[in-house]
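Below is a filled-in request sheet from our internal design queue. Each sheet records the structural input a requester submitted and the sequence that came back. We keep these sheets so that new team members can see what a complete request looks like end to end.

REQUESTER: design group, bay 2
PRIORITY: normal
MODE: inverse folding
CHAIN LENGTH: 340
BACKBONE (tokenized):
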């Protein structure tokens, strides 16, 4: 790769105020430096858009996973790319890597970033390793298989049900024999949950009487709640749980845009009286079990029990739009931008 190669990067133009907007970001071009010893050049083929990265765009939001993103610096996210050049002994040209790197056409890394070699033994499109076989599909799998454990005949409620995690979680709950009830925004999306993902019922989270709509959709109460949203919605669900309910805490989309912490549910005592559990989980810490999960998810796809849905955009200039789509509920399935 010649040193004069031009990179394209999405940078943080200013800190989002609430929900991110396309003009919070800018696409810039800069020359790509030559590789140093120990470095790898990755040509990014796909960018994965993940709602959780919104919180590192706030001032002072850094933690043990990532520092707060800086104004003018490339926006961090998850990417899938191909090794274009390597001066690192562990990587060779042509390998596919999934990595926590920036939204950019090319990345140079010394491999101290979060990097995973994408296995080539699975017969599926490469981009599935960012979605149904990536962290979001894995979250649905581990959150249900290990944490919530839906049983035949139980009612499992899934929030952000048409999103990357939720679109897989609802289908897995049904595979385990539960009745799956999805929560999403808008009548059209709710209908798609039923028609395209096989949900047994759907609830519009923007409904005037949300508790009533949820109760109508869950006449036998709620045994499992797969929560990607947190906030006031969690409180509504807690009021309708059954004895022994299991709540899997996957994420908190409702809180990511808020400058101040959202108030916690006022009804946590429901957990006490129902002897219910609420358990958080982090999928990337289960990395050694990804092969098991990938095999199982692909088996279900091959058996026709699981469908993959993607919200796919094209070109680096589409990355900000794709990210904003997550917070406007415009996505259905895993949101990805193809760069190639
Ligand atoms: N624990 C883990 O290891 C792990 C790993 C990956 C992802 N996650 C979490 O899983 C969740 C889903 O992530 P994703 O990146 O795959 O996003 P996604 O589900 O594809 O998209 C986000 C969805 O959230 C809903 N939403 C947006 N703003 C909302 C608000 N203010 N209140 C309620 N709902 C809102 C929208 O759906 P509707 O408008 O249709 O409701 C949107 O489609 C996130 O919380 C993420 O952090 C956790």
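RETURNED SEQUENCE:
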């Amino acid at each position: 790769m010649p040193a004069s190669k031009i990179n394209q990067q999405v940078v943080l133009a200013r800190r989002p105020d609430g929900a991110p907007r396309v003009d919070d970001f800018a696409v810039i071009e800069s020359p790509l430096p030559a590789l140093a010893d120990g470095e790898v050049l990755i040509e990014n083929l796909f960018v994965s858009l993940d709602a959780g990265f919104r919180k590192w765009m706030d001032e002072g939001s850094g933690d043990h996973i990532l520092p707060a993103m800086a104004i003018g610096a490339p926006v961090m996210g998850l990417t899938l790319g191909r090794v274009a050049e390597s001066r690192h002994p562990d990587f060779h040209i042509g390998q596919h890597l999934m990595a926590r790197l920036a939204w950019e056409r090319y990345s140079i890394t010394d491999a101290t970033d979060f990097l995973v070699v994408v296995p080539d033994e699975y017969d599926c499109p490469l981009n599935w390793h960012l979605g149904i076989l990536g962290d979001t599909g894995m979250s649905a799998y581990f959150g249900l298989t290990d944490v919530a454990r839906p049983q035949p005949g139980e009612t499992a409620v899934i929030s952000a049900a048409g999103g990357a995690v939720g679109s897989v979680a609802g289908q897995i709950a049904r595979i385990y024999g539960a009745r799956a009830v999805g929560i999403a925004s808008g009548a059209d999306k709710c209908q798609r949950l039923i028609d395209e993902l096989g949900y047994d019922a759907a609830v519009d989270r923007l409904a005037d009487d949300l508790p009533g709509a949820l109760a109508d959709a869950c006449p036998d109460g709620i045994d499992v709640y797969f929560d990607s949203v947190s906030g006031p919605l969690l409180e509504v669900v807690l009021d309708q749980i059954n004895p022994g309910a299991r709540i899997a805490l996957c994420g908190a989309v409702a809180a990511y845009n808020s400058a101040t912490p959202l108030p916690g549910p006022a009804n946590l005592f429901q957990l006490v009286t129902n002897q219910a559990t609420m358990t958080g989980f982090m999928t990337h810490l289960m990395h050694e079990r990804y092969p098991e999960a990938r095999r199982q998810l692909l088996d279900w796809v091959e058996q026709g029990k699981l469908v993959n849905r993607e919200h796919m955009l094209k070109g680096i200039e589409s990355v900000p739009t794709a990210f904003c789509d997550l917070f406007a509920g415009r996505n259905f399935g895993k949101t990805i931008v193809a760069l190639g």
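SHEET NOTES:
- The CA atoms of residues 171 and 197 lie 7 Å apart.
- Residues 135-148 form the longest helix (14 residues).
FILED BY: M.R.
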